[in-house]
Amino acid sequence: MESKTLETLIIEVADNGIATVTMNRPEKKNAANFTMWGELRETWNEISVDPDIRAVIMTGAGDAFCSGADLAGDAPKMHQLQSMNLIHKTIQALYSIMVPVIAKVNGVAAGAGMNMALACDLIVASDSARFSEIFAKRGLSVDFGGTWILPRLIGLHKAKELAFFADVISADEAKEFGFVNHVIPHDELDHFVAQWSQRLASGPPLALAMTKRLLTLNATADFSTALEGEGMAQTINFYTSDTKEAVSAFLEKREPQFKGR
């Protein structure tokens, strides 16, 4: 995958295997129109099949992450249910990415924008970030995967509180709710996320991918099924060069160099 600028996105791929996907409609606080949904879907599908990508940073241009769907945007000429199906394929593509994805929330994340952040594996927020399941204030029910992801992260009653009242909460409150990993001073956000993404990119790709998938699948699995999945994944790990490299590096007292095979 190469760095490129699309109509609504900026894609930057570094030599270290870190891809940064920036939603680029700052004049609309990165509200997602139908063009953006399509470009995000295509980008995430490309990332999913690129063996050179080791970690992903998702963020927004300007002073916002994503303010949700652009309700006045370029709506397609199709039935609403058909358009919702395409939009939901977008969030499914993000949720299916095997490599770790960090949401770098630099400002408001509302509605579908909040649920996009929740679909990432880790959320690092600026101390000026704000979050809201804004749907009820627009006469809408929660979508973009929020009804499935949010209660699994923070519990059913807390999820209902955020969804029913649609309050705007601070980054610190989001961390108290339990869906933000770290709140960082705004001026230090880029540096922190760069360090975290580098640590992920330096890790064992296959092992991290399988751990990610197991954690996702086992959220709704019984204990026996979870153990069976862990056993199969660990068996694969033991036959990889990365595991042999990790053991050698430990014995030689050096940092391992993982290759993803």
Can you offer a commentary on this structure?
- This protein is of the alpha/beta class and 261 residues long.
- It folds into 2 domains: 4-201, 2-enoyl-CoA Hydratase, Chain A, domain 1 (Alpha-Beta Complex); 205-251.
- Helix content is 45%, strand content 16%.
- The protein contains 10 helices and 11 strands.
- The strands form 2 sheets. Strands 1-2-3-4-6-8-11 form a 7-stranded mixed sheet, with helices on both faces.
- A hairpin with a 4-residue loop joins β2 and β3.
- α1 packs parallel to α2 (80-95) and α8 packs antiparallel against α9 (223-238).
- It is globular.
- It starts with a strand and ends in a 10-residue tail after the last helix.
Topology:
Layout lengths: L3 E2 L3 E5 L4 E6 L10 H15 L6 E6 L3 E3 L13 H16 L5 E5 L2 E3 L1 H8 L2 E5 L3 E3 L13 H9 L1 H10 L3 E2 H7 L4 E3 L4 H13 L3 H13 L5 H16 L2 H11 L10
Parallel strand pairs: 3-4, 4-6, 5-7, 6-8, 7-9, 8-11
Antiparallel strand pairs: 1-2, 2-3, 9-10
